[in-house]
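Collaborator request, handled under Task 6.
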Amino acid sequence: MSLYNNSLYLEDLQVISSFKSIPWDYLRGASLLLSGATGMIGSLLLDAIMYKNEKDALNCRIIALGRNEEKAKVRFSHWWKSPYFQFIECDVNQVESMPMGIKADFVLHLASNTHPIAYATDPIGTISSNIIGARNMLDLVVSCRAKRFLFASSNEIYGENRGDTEFFGESYCGYIDCNTLRAGYPESKRCGEALCQAYKKQKDVDVVIARLTRSFGPTLQLTDSKALTQFLKNGLCRHDIVLKSAGTQFYSYTYAVDSVTGLLTILLKGESGEAYNVADPSCDIQLKELAEIIADYSGTKVIFDLPNETESLGFSKATKARLCGDKLKSLDWRVSFSLPDGIRRTLSILSDGYEVS
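Structure tokens returned to the collaborator:
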């Protein structure tokens, strides 16, 4: 079943498009270019803007970048012929494929490997999209004279909690062992943020940075190897939820709808050069409790299993990573869904079109 026929998914789009603290008039008649358009966050953001175009005559043109046009045609078939939608096939890591002559008012860099197996099996690609891809996107901003650039960063830039705080504020810096394969993701995100500051100083680019927590929602890829995605996939299949650890890790999570409203709030209201955590403590939970919520909803149970070698290489070593969202809340952002509600909505929407195997 198409997402666009699902009443809960359409409700998600309505929640985003009616989010009152977003100054939508800044996007009226504007153009927005984003990399990673077919990803979990990018595809939901794209759908929400196109939905608002249709319902509220926002007339915001979306320029979507991605590596696979056929995949994009399937995902965005609902919008493919719209005059406000354009897809450009390109690899942001290859400068020769970038659409440098294009015009856009706002540019968002969302393309990135974001799950453990990719960190372990494609470490070069993981690092490249966060550094080389970010630089190419920043050069594109310079060439098209965009008003603002948003870099989607991650809670992983904080590293491990040093034991001196409960919540990570935007100035916190925990420990990362940079001489490991797993460090490629957080260290390249840190470097991407530093590149943003360099372009702000040297090229006068107006940049803002969104630090996303562990996000989930109905636009996720079921091939994603993150623990939560695998929990959700097992829940959909009515299989037991498999924990690869004791499950005592304490993390911040965000339903994708709230991640998108956070991104748009930062893009349109954030102070130039600043980074913002997209997080709310009501969505913080231990991994084993998260597994239990999904098992209860699915009528299954939680079991424990040891990770294999590849999985171990990709797993985060952080045991407590809770983000403080007060800075973003000062811009009038609030979450719209509790963590259990987000889990239930994700499972319900995905169950419409997911073949149990």
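The cover message to the collaborator said: "DSSP finds twelve helices and 13 strands in the chain. The chain has one domain: 3-219+253-280+322-336. Please let us know whether this matches your experimental observations."
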